[in-house]
Specification:
The complex is a heterodimer.
Chain A lengths: L6 E2 L8 E4 L5 H12 L3 E9 L11 E8 L6 E8 L4 E3 L8 H12 L2 E3 L37 H10 L9 E5 L11 E7 L2 E8 L7 H5 L4 H9 L6 H16 L5 H30 L2 H22 L8 E2 L2 E2 L7 H23 L3 H7 L7 H6 L4 H6 L6 H4 L20 H24 L18 H6 L1 H12 L7 E9 L2 E9 L7 E5 L1 H6 L2 H5 L4 H10 L4 H5 L1
Helix pairs in contact in A: 5-6, 6-7, 7-8, 7-14, 7-19, 8-9, 9-14
Chain B lengths: L18 H10 L4 E5 L2 H10 L22 E5 L7 H10 L5 E5 L1 H5 L20 E3 L6 H15 L3 H8 L10
Parallel strand pairs in B: 1-2, 2-3, 3-4
Classes of the chains: A alpha+beta, B alpha/beta.
Chain lengths: 554, 174
């Protein structure tokens, strides 16, 4: 079947297979891949508007599907060109995870899908006119929103399917967006019968702050601070994911010291991210003491990060081709102190909850998602592993020498709230193990790429010779020039597979950046997870997914 | 000054003051904040509330999630156009005297999100008393903001009465 596809093109150095497919064949091709070749994992769906692109394309838009097979080792990219008036076949019947992704493409680009169950806006508000990621939509043209969506257009059919013809006996309730347990800005609209949820609808986009559009008028290095604010609980991992992708596009590899520093600081970020998730989840359960036990080690980590990067939360430590500066003298001792605190916090918390009947009753067999369902819905990271699926980007697509570190991929068995929490506890231990090994073998030498068309020259050279001055000037005014190509790459962030799909036109500013946010796919599952549960359990289910709105809504 | 009259009977154990001042004094040390936390700044607020910075030293640890019980609205995070009507509704539900603290670059001015979806400062829709800079502000900055609010609300009754009558017309007030 794929032989019918027009041609296989290669424009990246990785083994990723890329195909251009005719729009009418897309659905058939994906169906074939899923059913015959076990491409069961939909990584992402995105679109590109080629209106202002440096070279003419056959049609204005392209829709792009990223798929992975059962082994998670092979990534396949399918691409189809289309014009505004052409309609795409929805693949929601093949992948549950496609539902929200297709809605996002419709919302941002105005491309229509046939047979989609509910093609409506997802990130922008109901009164929004136009499609903001189109190149002819002005960057700063905001549109006022005056009222919120009542969401009954989704709720009524849902209740009808469950046999509720009229709503007289039901109570409707908004959990969020402004709710202490909504973790920021998530809205769960529920229909209750007593305390049991019979129907749930989620609305997101309250923290949609235009990350992807903002990328289109900033240079690659200027985007680093924006990436901080995706998953702001582990800012540095986002920095790394973005810088790593761009470096691969440039065809450069960091010196070993740089790679090790990224591993160490990245794993520390994963630890503090898990700490916030667990602390908040326990607060939702009423176990407030654990919040102090788990949150205070985070303060120690903030001290270390402040000393290293100058910021507590939004660190912007990474740069394309390296990082702002090397580790400081005495870093190792501070890191040891920090890890000691984390271990103590974990120990204190676990001694309170591990064999605690109340905790177990609250967390076990709540919000169960099976492995197959989790894959079908595009889950990744600790949430997917808690459902018993052994997939970790660090192991399946090793980067930064992760294949040389000795650590375990933590896998759960039930896929309930308890597993998701316990997986995170154990992952903290594994991250500590990785940090220990990396600190022991931390090589010396340079931490950044030596090519000064990518990284800044030493100030000494800027002031004393013309070459350094030119490098500095070019990098500041034009940015790092990335060769014309389209590229996807991902790392294992705290929440799972955090990927960037970047379209470059050869200039210092990306033409299009698409984030593959891991919690977007977990969030899309929540309504199905909580239906049939008690309302107090819905709060725990939400907490256990670790939804970070900055990453979810971008 | 020597205490005279009836108070003299009770020695130092009684202080005479105006009722308004007594109420202001009590309010100052028991602000009940509502955290409108939407983004990164809310994570820093978690630090403000936890042991190291400990907002309870300033009497403001009783975080309310019902606007009707709160007198201090802390907007910590980006407010998008989609979020704006919700913020306005919450502000409207709070009873006077109410105070608004806009924490962080996004809430104050939109921050570096100068684009189609981000409101360029919450003062476009509701009045703000104190602005705190930072992206996100450090916990000390939150505490400084709180102290500024405490100073404002301890001002003379005349100021407070005038303030309660102030007119504000935001973009969502049709």
């Amino acid at each position: 079947m794929l032989s019918q596809c027009e041609k296989k093109i290669e424009f990246s150095k990785t083994k990723n297979s890329r195909y251009i497919v005719k729009l009418k064949d897309i659905k058939r091709a994906i169906k074939f891949l899923k059913q015959e070749k076990n491409y069961n994992f939909l990584v992402d769906i995105t679109a590109v508007d080629y209106l202002d692109f440096c070279e003419p394309k056959q049609k204005r838009f392209a829709i792009i599907y990223l798929l992975k097979d059962d082994s998670f080792d092979n990534l396949l990219v399918l691409k189809a060109y289309l014009n505004e008036d052409e309609i795409i076949d929805s693949i929601t019947d093949l992948y549950e995870g496609a539902n929200w992704s297709e809605r996002e493409v419709w919302d941002q680009y105005g491309l229509k899908f046939k047979n989609h169950p509910n093609l409506k806006r997802i990130l922008n508000h109901k009164e929004f006119v136009g499609h903001p990621l189109r190149k002819d939509y002005p960057m700063t043209k905001g549109q006022l929103c005056t009222k919120t969506d009542d969401l009954m257009d989704e709720m009524t059919p849902k209740l009808k399917a469950k046999g509720y013809e009229n709503h007289d006996d039901l109570m409707f309730l908004n959990l969020g967006p402004a709710h202490p347990a909504s973790h920021g800005t998530i809205r769960t609209f529920v229909a209750l019968e007593g305390e049991t949820i019979v129907g749930a609808v989620n609305e997101i986009g309250y923290l949609h702050r235009g990350f992807e559009k903002s990328c289109e008028n900033h240079t690659y290095n200027q985007i680093i601070p924006y990436t901080d604010r995706l998953n702001y609980c582990s800012a540095i991992l986002n920095n790394i994911a973005f810088a790593h992708t761009v470096e691969q596009m440039l065809g450069v590899e960091l010196p070993d010291r740089g790679q090790f520093i990224r591993v160490i600081i990245g794993e520390l970020s994963r630890i503090i991210d898990h700490l916030v998730c667990l602390a908040a989840n326990l607060v939702d359960m009423g176990a407030l003491t654990n919040y102090w036990y788990l949150y205070n080690p985070r303060e120690t980590a903030y001290q270390l990060l402040s000393k290293l990067t100058g910021a507590r939360l939004t660190n912007s430590y990474m740069r394309i081709g390296g990082m702002t500066h090397d580790l400081y003298d005495g870093f190792e001792d501070d890191l040891k102190e920090c890890i000691k605190d984390v271990e103590k916090g974990m120990h204190d918390t676990l001694s309170l909850i591990e064999h605690n009947r109340i905790f177990q009753d609250r967390a076990q067999n709540i919000g169960i998602v099976t492995g197959d369902e989790a894959i079908n819905r595009g889950w990744s990271g600790p949430n997917l592993r808690a459902s018993g699926v052994n997939y970790d980007v660090r192991v399946n697509h090793p980067y930064y020498h992760y294949d040389t570190f000795d650590f375990d991929v933590v896998v759960g068995s039930q896929g309930d709230v308890y597993d998701r929490m316990m997986v995170r506890f154990e992952e903290i231990r594994q991250s500590i193990k990785i940090i220990d090994q990396a600190m022991k073998t931390l090589p010396g030498g340079s931490y950044s790429v030596a090519d000064h068309s990518i990284t800044f020259p030493l100030k000494k050279n800027v002031y004393s010779n013309i070459e350094g001055l030119m490098n500095q000037f070019k990098l500041v005014s034009e940015g790092v020039k990335v060769p014309n190509q389209e590229f996807y790459s991902s790392i294992e962030a705290a929440n799972g597979e955090l990927g960037f799909y970047i379209v470059s036109d050869g200039s210092g500013t990306p033409y299009r950046v698409k984030v593959r946010p891991p919690c977007f796919f977990s969030m899309a599952t929540l309504s199905a997870m909580v239906e049939g549960e008690m309302i107090a359990d819905a709060v725990l289910s939400l907490g256990s997914l670790n939804i970070i709105a900055g990453e979810l809504d971008r | 000054m020597a205490v005279t009259g009836e108070e003299a009977i009770y020695g130092d154990s009684v202080i005479t003051t105006k009722l308004d001042s007594a109420i202001a004094w009590a309010r100052e040390s028991s602000m009940w904040p509502y955290i409108f936390g939407t983004a990164c700044c809310a994570i820093e607020f978690m630090s403000v509330a936890s042991s190291k910075f400990d907002i309870s030293r300033f009497g403001a640890e009783v975080v309310r999630f019902s606007p009707r019980q709160a007198d201090l609205l802390i907007i910590a995070g980006t407010v998008s156009y989609k979020q704006a009507p919700i913020l306005k509704k919450i502000y409207d539900q709070m009873t006077e005297p109410k105070w608004v603290m806009s924490a962080g670059a996004c809430a104050c001015s939109g921050g570096f999100y100068d684009n189609y979806t981000t409101m360029q400062g919450v003062d476009e829709i509701i009045p703000v008393d104190v602005y705190i800079s930072g992206c996100p502000p450090r916990p000390e900055a939150f505490l400084e903001g709180l102290m500024q609010i405490q100073k404002l609300q301890a001002k003379p009754t005349k100021y407070l009465k005038k303030r309660a009558k102030r007119e504000f017309k935001g973009r969502l007030d049709a």
